[in-house]
C-alpha cells in the first residue's frame, strides 16, 4: 500500500508548483513517439498527459496505488492501473519507465527497482526524479520542532515521516544490483515557491505531519511550521536517475 494518503483534488490544484521539475525530467527521456512507456506513480495524471502527448503512435501505461489519484487520472488518461509499485507486474515489457516525485514515498527501494527491472525490456530506459538526500531539510527541522511542542506533541507519538530521501551512491548501487546499467544518479537543489503556499505545504511536503493533526487545526500547524522555516521557498533537493535495463 502507499505509505501515505493523498487529497488528490487538492494535489491536482497545488502541484502546478512542481511542474517545472517534471518538465526537466520529461526532456531527459528520448522518444520517437511509438514506444510503450510506464509512468510509475502518475498521481492525478497532469504530468502523464504531457508524456502521452509525446507518444502519438505509442502507449502510456499510468500506474498509481492511491484510489483518489487513479480516479482523477482516469478522467484524462486512457490506461491507468491501480497497482502498488512494489507488486508491479505487466503482461508485456515496456520500452521505458518514467517517474516523478514518487520513489521517495516507497520505502523499499531494493524491491521497487527489482519490480521496475522486471517490467522493462532489455535496453529500455529508466528516467526518474524523486526527493533525494537533504530534501526539505529546513522544512522538516521546523516541522519536527513544532511537533515536539506541548501544544502538538500528543499527535506525534511514535511518528516517523514515511519517506526515504536516498543518496546517489546507494541508489546507483541498488539499481545496478537490480540489473540496470549505465546508471547515473545526481542531486539537484530545486527551491519551490507557490502562490498557494499554505495549502501546498499541507497537501504535499507537510502532508504526513498535517494528517496527524485534527483537520480543524491543520492550518494552524502548517502556519507554525512555515513561520519557523527560513526563506520563502521549500528547500527541495531532487535525486535524478537515469539508466537502462541490462
Ligand atoms: C507526489 S505524487 C507524484 C505524482 C506525479 N508523478 C507528479 O509528479 O505530479 C506521488 C504519487 O506516488 C504514488 N505512490 C506512492 N507510493 C506508491 C506505491 N508504492 N505504488 C504506487 N504509487 C505510489 C502516490 O499515490 C502519489 O500519487
From TrEMBL:
GO MF annotations, alphabetized: S-adenosylmethionine-dependent methyltransferase activity
GO process terms (BP): methylation
Domain of life: Bacteria
Claim: Nucleotide-binding is one of the keywords in the record: no
The protein's name in its UniProt record: Trans-aconitate methyltransferase
Keywords from the UniProt entry: Methyltransferase, Transferase
Residue intervals of the Methyltransferase type domain: 38-127
